[in-house]
Amino acid sequence: MKKIILLIMLCLAVPADAGVYKKKIKSKVKYALKQTKGKLRTIKHKQINKRKKRNLTKKTKKRIIAAHKYLAANAPHVLEGKQKKGYEVRVLLEKLSKPDKNKTWTLKLESKKGFIVQQSEKHSKKILIRNNSIYLSVDNNNLFIKTATTSPRKINGNSIIFSPLSNYSVLNGTPYEGYIYIYPRKNKAPCVINKINLDDYIYSVLRSEIYQSWPDEMQKVQAVTSRTYAMHHIFNSREKNKIYDIRSTGAHQNYKGYHPYTHLRKAVQETENLILTHNKKPALTMFDICCGGSTPANIKGLNFDKAPYLARQQSCNYCKNYNLYRWNKEINLNEFMNNLKSHKKLSNYISHIGKLQEIKIAEKDKGGIVHKLRIKGSKRSIICSGRTLIESVGDKIKSLSFNLKEIKKNNSSKNLLFTGKGFGHQIGLCQRGAYTLVKKGWDFKEILSFYFPKTKFAQINRIKG
Hints:
By secondary structure, the chain is an alpha+beta fold.
């Protein structure tokens, strides 16, 4: 301002004939005025922004206080930062929903007291959602959240974490303890993972993989087996940087979320942190329902150098009183071929073999496991692997330890007669055999030492990984 006043005074003091100087001074006055106006504008903007920030901070403070009060009343454990000790396992939840016509996957997530939503573990920003129900839709790698009171809102990030404020959340009707992670994927079903305390996971698995009415000692056998199996996969997945450790289906262990059978907690607690190890690492403790009296050491296709504890030399006949120790199954030939045609790997080949002439076993190992079937037609023959056979016919065949023959019926139709033994892959723990040993007075450690020779018992916190 002082500069402008001086310039105006100079302009008045200059004589009238000095036009050139007058013009120069006027232009300087205009320039100075523009600068001062610009400065005044910026000062005003700064003042307005400060006021806005004050208002925003007041609003955010109010929101934080309100959220704090809500959490203190409904979920004090979140504020206290209390978490269960021990390992956590990341379970891949499969077959949750199917896409609609627009290739959009929809999930419903429920919690009695709401959720805390976080974009990733590294992301510090968290959103408190007080609604009991959230509707999630995944469309072309994008995740949208909708509640009963809000419109769909896009959530950015490669992974989104939902933490329930109650003891568990309900995803598409199934309750789960722990956290729900969702990884959107382009033109694919979202990858949904349940991150849960290891003991809570084992407690859930016991409901799915064993009868709840079986004795406590048998529950301990299964608890140690399932815990070791989970730890083996946890170690492997961390080495390979996978986003999940274990699958929720029979491909690994059946996991169906939270359940109310609290008596199963006893077996988990009494075997806390106990696993089987080989070379100071968690063993691959496979298990099935009934081994049918097989000797695993004679089964082909396993790397017994890495897992010598699976090569048990002594056969198990303790399951002989189980009804599937020996079994027969007749399958109509046309039905059997239709099952094979429905398999992705075989559909193209089956249609080109011509008229079916013969089905016979092409390869069987010393343990009695069928590895290959030959399907001969009038035009060509094809080989079907044992795994593909099981995938095609499902529960109709209880194991790959069978003999096969073709039989004719009165109405000129043909059937295949499977005569087999056991239920499952016949490696590792035989649940029906272990149940008999429990009834004979064996304790869980003796049973596990029989089914997994060359392993040692160890505490999780004493192994490397």
